[in-house]
């Protein structure tokens, strides 16, 4: 452990006192690797353990810097065999990561995978439109940056690839999970039959029932996006940031889903056009 701390201190000393171009490249590569590790372990037990281990290393360095010998000794003994402990704890995740590397799999975020994004947009839109035509109630929550683990724990774990037929079957009347909400995280259906917090908004119309109030409620405290299908009318609604947008048609539904799962890559031509338009608007105002 002392060797690790000494290496880190030596690295930062060289960084701030003898900066070279290769040091910048080195830092960028390390930052990219750490970012990919966080992406791979995000929302997993391994991710929590990894962040905890990094925190212990930082506390160990800080206690040594401040001269807190007792705390430094205690943490150093806890993490002295940290590398071996991490290998044991992360064995399943490391095996999966190596398999992905061997298959040439990308670690990029889902939004960068346009083919997968298009498939998800198609699957979800077809399922929602089908439920709407048959007037089958549905409540689908798309997790964004704010985690929804508290709500996920109230439902039944699914952990399945997004599939239109699966979504339709979950909300089929008289099935065990049809009354609750489906929660989607990235490209996975993580849980179904989840219980959401109802909105206290007194301005909502009386025609909006529990399903709409639950959809609004979860968006009032998080950045989630919710799709709601009315059981009485078949109307498709979207809830976001505590606001409800009703009467979504197929085109509007696709726009909402594409905003979450499909992003155009920024090209030089697009960037130049955006800059040109910005300066054009500024000149017009002047």
Gap from first CA to last CA: 62 Å
Shape: elongated
- Estimate the strand proportion: 5-15%
Helix content: 55-70%
CATH topology of the largest domain: YojJ-like (1
What is the string of helix and strand elements?
Answer: HHHHHHHEHEHEEHEEEHH
How many extended strands? 7
The number of distinct helices, counting runs of at least 4 residues, comes to: 12
**What top-tier CATH class of the largest domain fits best?**
Alpha Beta
Low-confidence region ranges: 105-112, 264-272, 281-286
By helix and strand content, what is the structural category? alpha+beta
Radius of gyration: 24 Å
Please describe the biggest sheet, giving its number of strands, its sense, and whether it closes into a barrel.
7 strands, mixed
CATH superfamily of the largest domain: DNA integrity scanning protein, DisA, N-terminal domain
The pLDDT mean sits at 79
Task: Give the gist of this structure.
With 286 residues, the chain is an alpha+beta fold.
Can you put this structure into words, describing what you see?
- The chain has 286 residues and is of the alpha+beta class.
- It folds into 2 domains: 2-102, no CATH class; 111-261, YojJ-like (1 (3-Layer(aba) Sandwich).
- 57% of the residues lie in helices and 13% in strands.
- It contains 12 helices and 7 strands.
- A 7-stranded mixed β-sheet has the order 2-4-3-1-5-6-7, sandwiched between helices.
- The radius of gyration is 24 Å and the shape is elongated.
- It starts with a helix and ends with a helix.
List the helices and strands and how they pair.
Layout: H1 2-17, H2 21-41, H3 45-66, H4 69-78, H5 82-89, H6 91-102, H7 114-133, E1 138-143, H8 149-152, E2 156-161, H9 164-170, E3 181-185, E4 188-194, H10 210-221, E5 225-229, E6 236-240, E7 243-245, H11 250-261, H12 268-285
Parallel strand pairs: 1-3
Antiparallel strand pairs: 1-5, 2-4, 3-4, 5-6, 6-7
Helix pairs in contact: 2-3, 3-4, 7-9, 7-11
């Amino acid at each position: 452990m002392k060797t690790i701390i000494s290496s880190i201190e030596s690295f930062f000393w060289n960084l701030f006192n003898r900066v070279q171009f290769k040091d910048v490249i080195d830092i960028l590569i390390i930052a990219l690797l750490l970012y990919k590790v966080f992406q791979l372990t995000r929302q997993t037990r391994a991710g929590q353990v990894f962040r905890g281990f990094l925190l212990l290393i930082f506390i160990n360095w800080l206690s040594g810097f401040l001269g807190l010998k007792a705390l430094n000794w205690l943490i150093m003994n806890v993490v002295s065999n940290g590398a071996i402990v991490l290998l044991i704890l992360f064995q399943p995740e490391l095996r999966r990561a190596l398999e992905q590397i061997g298959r040439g799999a990308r670690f990029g975020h889902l939004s960068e995978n346009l083919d997968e994004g298009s498939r998800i947009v198609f699957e979800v839109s077809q399922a929602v439109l089908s439920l709407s035509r048959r007037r089958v109630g549905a409540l689908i929550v798309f997790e964004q940056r704010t985690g929804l683990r508290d709500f996920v724990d109230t439902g039944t774990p699914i952990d399945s690839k997004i599939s239109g037929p699966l979504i339709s079957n979950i909300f089929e009347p008289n099935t065990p999970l049809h009354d609750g909400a489906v929660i989607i995280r990235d490209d996975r259906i993580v849980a179904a039959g989840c219980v959401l917090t109802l909105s206290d908004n007194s301005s909502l119309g009386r025609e909006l029932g529990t399903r709409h109030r639950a959809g609004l409620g979860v968006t009032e405290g998080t950045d989630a996006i919710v799709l709601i299908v009315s059981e009485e009318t078949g109307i498709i609604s979207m809830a976001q940031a505590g606001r409800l947008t009703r009467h979504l048609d197929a085109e509007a539904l696709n726009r909402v889903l594409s905003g979450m799962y499909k992003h155009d890559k920024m090209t030089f031509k697009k960037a130049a056009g955006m800059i040109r338009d910005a300066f054009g608007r500024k000149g017009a105002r002047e």
